[in-house]
Each structure stands twice: as C-alpha cells, then as structure tokens.
Amino acid sequence: MSTLREPCVGRFRQMLPIDLKEILSIERRAYEFAWTEGIFRDCLRAGYQCRVLETPHGFIQAYGVMSVAVGEAHILNLCVRPELQGRGLSRRLLAHLLELAISLQAQTVFLEVRLSNQRALRLYASAGFCEVGLRRDYYPAIKGREDGWVLAKEL
C-alpha cells in the first residue's frame, strides 16, 4: 500500500459526519485516551472548525478540531494517522488551522498539551507557541492524571 508509505500532498476540507468511523479508528490508535464519537459529533454540531487532510483518493491522513470565538481560537485536537507520523503532516495541519484562525479574525490561539508529549511540544514551540499556564491533573493517565501545558500564540 503505497498510500501508507508515502503520504500525498492532499487537500484540506471540512470534516463530515460520514468521516467519523475512519477518524475514530485513527484516534483510537493514536491516543491511549481517545475522544469519543460523541465528542466529535458535538464539535461538528457546535460549528467548530473540524478539518481533515485527505489524499486525492479520499484517504484521511490527519484531522484537527478548533473552536473560534471572540478573537480567540482553541485547538482542541490535532491528530495524524500513526503510520504517517514524522513526515511533516502535523506541521502542515497546524499551519492550516492557524491560517483558518487568522481568516476568522482570531488574535490569539490556545491549546493544551501533555507534559510528556515532547514531540508535540517541539512542534508547537517551533511554530511560535509559548507556555502561558499549567493545568494540574488535566489529562487522564494510566497511573492517575497528568499535567498539561497551556500554550498560546499571538497571530
């Protein structure tokens, strides 16, 4: 399957309810504490910016969820298919979400990230995000809870 070895450039589009089966499959493989179908459906219903990056043949490579209101954007989920990680897709998805936030007149973007997620922390730092807070016991973990950094970027 060459699609898994070499991701295509692809295109971004709005996430649709019909995508949720595939997105949930990716989410469960990417995260120990995955979002539920209900969470994704609520985000779609609320009108959040739910985007997928897909190949020309409709193969979902990555997806992101962001809320935007009153000059602020919050990146709630950014996920790349596990077998395609490390190929620049998360950087491309993040750039797309930041451009979308700008187009929707957000001045600041926020997100939370696990302290243990060093890969994500490096990505966000390289994109200009700064630590602005710490949420104690924010994330579920195998042995209790894990803290999360609150990061922000001025647009």
Give a short summary of the structure.
The chain has helices at 2-5, 20-30, 37-45, 89-103, 118-126, and strands spanning 11-14, 49-54, 60-69, 72-80, 108-114, 130-141, 144-154. With 155 residues, the chain is α+β, with helices and mostly antiparallel strands.
Can you walk through the features of this model?
With 155 residues, the chain is an alpha+beta fold. It has one domain: Gcn5-related N-acetyltransferase (GNAT) (Aminopeptidase). Helices cover 31% and strands 38% of the residues. The N terminus is likely disordered.
How are the elements arranged and paired?
Blueprint: H1 2-5, E1 11-14, H2 20-30, H3 37-45, E2 49-54, E3 60-69, E4 72-80, H4 89-103, E5 108-114, H5 118-126, E6 130-141, E7 144-154
Parallel strand pairs: 4-5
Antiparallel strand pairs: 1-2, 2-3, 3-4, 5-7, 6-7
Number of strands: 7
The strands making up the biggest β-sheet line up spatially as: 1-2-3-4-5-7-6
**Amount of helix:** 25-40%
Please state the average pLDDT score.
Answer: 94
Number of domains: 1
CATH fold-level label? Aminopeptidase
The CATH superfamily is Gcn5-related N-acetyltransferase (GNAT)
Structural class based on helices, strands and sheet pairing: alpha+beta
- Count of helical segments? 5
